[in-house]
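Sample intake sheet
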Amino acid sequence: QVQLVESGGGLVQAGGSLRLSCAASGRTVSSYAMGWFRQAPGKEREFVAAISRSGVTTSYADSVKGRFTISRDNAKSAVYLQMSNLKPDDTAVYYCAASRLVAAITNVDRYDFWGQGTQVTVSS
């Protein structure tokens, strides 16, 4: 299995940027498709972005497309989420996840391993 630890969350003003990192240990991260999800208070966990094993294919939720970029560095066993032009609606706990599948899967139920989450708060 793989263990995931997110970092990089914090408080930022609307329009600002943050980069989240996900460090993996255990099995090599190259064995997994990776994704980012978020959960706001009182809401269901929702898909944000995903990347295939190779990093060639990515997928984004419509709400973040054009503002967020997912990337991976398999040599460093790391996955990143670059967030720009942040909005108050982006406020949530962000989770890194790993899937045994190859593709950039968007379904929360298809992910097998999860990090502990990191808080992102965007102020007006």
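Comment: The two ends are 40 Å apart (CA to CA). The mean pLDDT is 95.
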